[in-house]
Amino acid sequence: VLHNKFKVEDVLQNTFLKAMLTIRDNRYQENGKFKFWIQRIAHNTLIDFLRFEKSEQKIFTDNFGLDLYNDYRLSEGTIEDRIVYKQVCRNVKKMLKFLPDDQQEILVLRYYNGLTYKEIAIYLGVSVNTALGRVRYAIRNMRKMTKIHTTILSLS
Predict the structure, then answer these.
(1) 5: CB partners within 8 A, 6+ apart
(2) What are the Cα distances from residue 38, in Å, to 11, 22, 26, 30, 64?
């Protein structure tokens, strides 16, 4: 999958590190076979590695018409942008607490843990369509809460 010896070694090392830490912390439970448990850790570590690699911003200067110094997508933004972003994140976390547990869980899996709908469906033991529907309902409820909160603030 990785086609790179050094990347494979990194994933393998992280796999065994996670396994050793789990065993050291007495969190390993012998429910099944060790082989399958370690394979699951390796699989999850590989997925995490691929996600991280995909999310890294790569800059190539040989693209035509690309101005690296004036491209707003590559800037970190202003301090005001960061303050507003942090406040929005805090507000979203507060609103999450008012959602039903299943909607909280699915939003955390999707937006905080970065799982795909297929991964969520497997994790929750539901169909992909059910996972999509639950995310949609949760977002709809969040929007309703935002409207109500905005209305209350404008009335006061």
Answers:
(1) none
(2) 12, 11, 15, 12, 46
Would the pLDDT of 156 be above 70? no
> Does pLDDT of 129 surpass 90?
yes
Joined tokens for residue 62: 């040989």
Residue 73 confidence (pLDDT) above 70: no
Instruction: For tokens 């994790």, name the residue.
Output: 123
pLDDT at 82 > cutoff 60: yes
In terms of pTM, does the model score above 0.90?
A: no
Helix axes 128-155, 79-96, angle to 10 degrees: 110
Query: Contact 104/137 with Cβ under 8 angstroms?
Result: no
Among residues 9, 14, 5, the alpha carbon closest in space to that of 48 is found at 14
The DSSP letter of residue 148 is: H
Confirm if 74 and 68 have CB atoms less than 8 A apart. Answer: yes
Q: 127, exposed or middle or buried, with CB in 10 Å at 0-12, 13-18, 19+?
A: exposed
The region that residue 30 occupies, defined by phi over 0 for left and psi between -120 and 50 for alpha, beta otherwise, is beta
